[in-house]
Automatic annotation (TrEMBL):
<keyword id="KW-0653">Protein transport</keyword>
<keyword id="KW-0812">Transmembrane</keyword>
<dbReference type="InterPro" id="IPR006312">
    <property type="entry name" value="TatA/E"/>
</dbReference>
<comment type="subunit">
    <text>The Tat system comprises two distinct complexes: a TatABC complex, containing multiple copies of TatA, TatB and TatC subunits, and a separate TatA complex, containing only TatA subunits. Substrates initially bind to the TatABC complex, which probably triggers association of the separate TatA complex to form the active translocon.</text>
</comment>
<keyword id="KW-0811">Translocation</keyword>
<comment type="function">
    <text>Part of the twin-arginine translocation (Tat) system that transports large folded proteins containing a characteristic twin-arginine motif in their signal peptide across membranes. TatA could form the protein-conducting channel of the Tat system.</text>
</comment>
<dbReference type="GO" id="GO:0008320">
    <property type="term" value="F:protein transmembrane transporter activity"/>
</dbReference>
<keyword id="KW-0813">Transport</keyword>
<dbReference type="GO" id="GO:0043953">
    <property type="term" value="P:protein transport by the Tat complex"/>
</dbReference>
<dbReference type="Pfam" id="PF02416">
    <property type="entry name" value="TatA_B_E"/>
</dbReference>
<keyword id="KW-0472">Membrane</keyword>
<dbReference type="GO" id="GO:0033281">
    <property type="term" value="C:TAT protein transport complex"/>
</dbReference>
<feature type="compositionally biased region" description="Low complexity">
    <location>
        <begin position="63"/>
        <end position="77"/>
    </location>
</feature>
<protein>
    <recommendedName>
        <fullName>Sec-independent protein translocase protein TatA</fullName>
    </recommendedName>
</protein>
<feature type="transmembrane region" description="Helical">
    <location>
        <begin position="6"/>
        <end position="23"/>
    </location>
</feature>
<keyword id="KW-1003">Cell membrane</keyword>
<dbReference type="InterPro" id="IPR003369">
    <property type="entry name" value="TatA/B/E"/>
</dbReference>
Length: 77
């Protein structure tokens, strides 16, 4: 059914639709934001892999710190 699903003219149609939807002035900013997001995602995925390869233990910096609720101020009557 989808024997030739992505032909060159399909990509051209998609590019024209993207330009029409976003406008040519916003495309560089959109591409820059997408690239920045991809870099962040890649670095976070790499960090998760390194944490998993380290033995799977939770370090002190990752443990949540719980504090007891503060006592309400005492009022004298």
């Amino acid at each position: 059914m989808l024997r030739n699903g992505l032909e060159p003219w399909h990509l051209l149609v998609v590019a024209v639709v993207v330009v029409l939807v976003f406008g040519s002035k916003k495309l560089p900013d959109t591409a820059r934001a997408l690239g920045k997001s991809m870099r962040i995602l890649k670095s976070e995925a790499k960090a998760m892999k390194e944490d998993g390869a380290a033995g799977g233990t939770v370090s002190e910096a990752q443990t949540p710190v719980t504090t007891a609720p503060a006592d309400p101020p005492a009022t004298a009557y």
